[in-house]
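Methods — Computational structure assignment.
A single polypeptide chain was analysed. Its primary sequence is given first, followed by the predicted tertiary structure written as structure tokens.
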Amino acid sequence: MVAGCVTLKQEVAVGIERLWKATACDDHNLLPKVLPDFFVSAEIVEGNGGAGTIRKFNFRPAVKVASFIKDHLEVVDHESHLVKYAVIEGGLIGQRLKSQMFEVRYEVSGNGGCVVKTKVEYDTLDDKPLSEQELEELKGWLVQVLKATEGYLLANPSAYA
């Protein structure tokens, strides 16, 4: 087993409160709308959206690595704009990874937008770290999700206001 970590910092032209509401609080409703080519559906399986909640995201065949992921919200801190969640089933869990934890921090930027800092920690099932290609695919996915959300919020200024 090999432990690894990847980080990503993205600037977004949307205010922190709107982006927080859309991505940390309602992504299970928003993502199938903004990325219909990738998401079939998403739902809260258990909980109320706070810490302890279990969510399931179902993917279309365009997402080649998995048909779904199920995650567990560990932390949802509305004051500091921090969310942490663990993928507990689906995705690369059980295939390539033993565990995968996401930590996403939202920070105000000087231009009225915000900065999203994502850290992904993982443990592989074997003695090989994730390849550069696998890490780039993960980063690409994170960028694509955030860019689609940003585009939707910019095109719909009253959404999540």
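Note: The two ends are 44 Å apart (CA to CA).
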